[in-house]
TrEMBL record:
Listed GO MF terms: uroporphyrin-III C-methyltransferase activity
Protein name as catalogued: uroporphyrinogen-III C-methyltransferase
Stored Gene3D superfamilies: Cobalt-precorrin-4 Transmethylase, Domain 1 (3.40.1010.10), Methyltransferase, Cobalt-precorrin-4 Transmethylase, Domain 2 (3.30.950.10)
Domain Tetrapyrrole methylase: 7-215
GO terms, biological process: methylation
Length: 257
């Protein structure tokens, strides 16, 4: 086991569909001696690692934290020093609400070589899978990507600011705070703003609910939508070719009232 050169590659696994893994991610996994992975939307991705590679689940699920972040940081470093090439595999993109930056900082404090392989973030990929272009000329010139739950379990104060803007708002990990989010948009007189909620986006288990700020809580109840889901609020939702029919029908009902 002498002369092992430790190397840590932080790999974004993409939004769930295993075909949305990058070629660079596949190549990194193929060389891994150890893979430390989160609660991935699709564990088939682990098949790209050699059969001999050690696989360690370090993910967090609600109410079930396998390891603390400090323990994960230490595990990554210990495995790199012992076995060499470590792949740290995280859903989506590691630097978008994934705490990847903390893991890289910790590894680099030991002088270990680190490489980052970006992943396709669910922020853009999940709306795109429903035909929602989160920016669109003449409709939305920017977007907010916000975590619904901050590290102290509160709703991000940025949601209230986002509700005041004309930008598309994409909220991750926000289903437990949906009523609060809706309340903030209603306070800005945005009751008719289109909303899409996409659960398990890009996977075979995908479920979608569409409506407006005023109607979406009822839609969530009817369709029994839950986590993990992405909340998209903005006029671009109405522009989606996949969802357009719903809004045309919805508007004709409103006019008929």
């Amino acid at each position: 086991m002498h002369n092992i050169k430790p190397k840590i590659t932080l790999v974004g696994a993409g939004p769930g569909d295993p075909d949305l893994l990058t070629l660079k991610a596949v190549k990194a996994l193929a060389e891994a001696n150890v893979v430390l992975y989160d609660a991935l939307a699709n564990e088939e991705i682990l098949d790209y690692a050699p059969k001999t590679a050690i696989r360690i689940f370090v993910g967090k699920r609600i109410g079930n934290h396998a390891y603390t972040q400090d323990q994960i940081n230490q595990l990554i470093v210990d495995n790199a020093l012992t076995y060499g090439k470590v792949v740290r595999l995280k859903g989506g993109d590691s630097f978008i609400f994934g705490r990847g930056g903390e893991e890289i900082d910790f590894a680099e404090s030991f002088g270990i070589e680190t490489i980052v392989v970006p992943g396709i973030s669910s922020v853009v990929a999940v709306p795109a899978s429903q035909g929602i272009s989160i920016t669109k000329r003449g409709v939305s010139e920017s977007f907010w990507a916000i975590t619904g739950t901050t590290s102290d379990r509160k709703l991000s104060s940025d949601v209230a600011l986002a509700a005041q803007s004309s930008a598309t708002v994409v909220i991750l990990m926000g289903m437990h705070k949906l009523a609060q989010i809706i309340d903030l948009f209603q306070k800005e007189d945005k009751g008719n703003l289109p909303v899409a909620i996409i659960q398990n986006g890009t996977t075979a288990e995908e479920k979608v609910g569409v409506g407006t700020v005023d109607s979406i809580l009822e839609v969530v109840k009817q369709k029994e939508l839950g986590s993990p889901a992405i909340i998209v609020l903005g006029e671009v939702v109405r522009e989606s070719s996949k969802l357009k029919g719903f809004y045309e029908e919805f508007l004709s009902k409103e006019i008929a009232r």
